[in-house]
Amino acid sequence: FDPRHYRGTHCYGWPKTGPHRLRFLLESVKDLRETLQKKGSTLVVRKGKPEDVVHDLITQLGSVTAVVFHEEVREIL
């Protein structure tokens, strides 16, 4: 979870992530983790800037051969 997505405003003073969206995201992540665990896997969840968290995970794991990510689409106003 990137803290930058959960503070400040996006447009017109509306919060980037309100309480209902945050609850939905947390419940979705919890459900995904439980589903993966039933299949013998797991889900790594971290809080922080992705550029820092991913670097730390790669360093910790040591044998990473690929990293896949997506970038949030930004509106052009």
TrEMBL record:
<keyword id="KW-0157">Chromophore</keyword>
<dbReference type="GO" id="GO:0003684">
    <property type="term" value="F:damaged DNA binding"/>
</dbReference>
<dbReference type="InterPro" id="IPR006050">
    <property type="entry name" value="DNA_photolyase_N"/>
</dbReference>
<feature type="domain" description="Photolyase/cryptochrome alpha/beta">
    <location>
        <begin position="1"/>
        <end position="77"/>
    </location>
</feature>
<dbReference type="GO" id="GO:0000719">
    <property type="term" value="P:photoreactive repair"/>
</dbReference>
<dbReference type="InterPro" id="IPR014729">
    <property type="entry name" value="Rossmann-like_a/b/a_fold"/>
</dbReference>
<dbReference type="GO" id="GO:0071949">
    <property type="term" value="F:FAD binding"/>
</dbReference>
<dbReference type="Pfam" id="PF00875">
    <property type="entry name" value="DNA_photolyase"/>
</dbReference>
<dbReference type="InterPro" id="IPR002081">
    <property type="entry name" value="Cryptochrome/DNA_photolyase_1"/>
</dbReference>
<protein>
    <submittedName>
        <fullName>CRYD protein</fullName>
    </submittedName>
</protein>
<dbReference type="GO" id="GO:0003904">
    <property type="term" value="F:deoxyribodipyrimidine photo-lyase activity"/>
</dbReference>
<dbReference type="InterPro" id="IPR036155">
    <property type="entry name" value="Crypto/Photolyase_N_sf"/>
</dbReference>
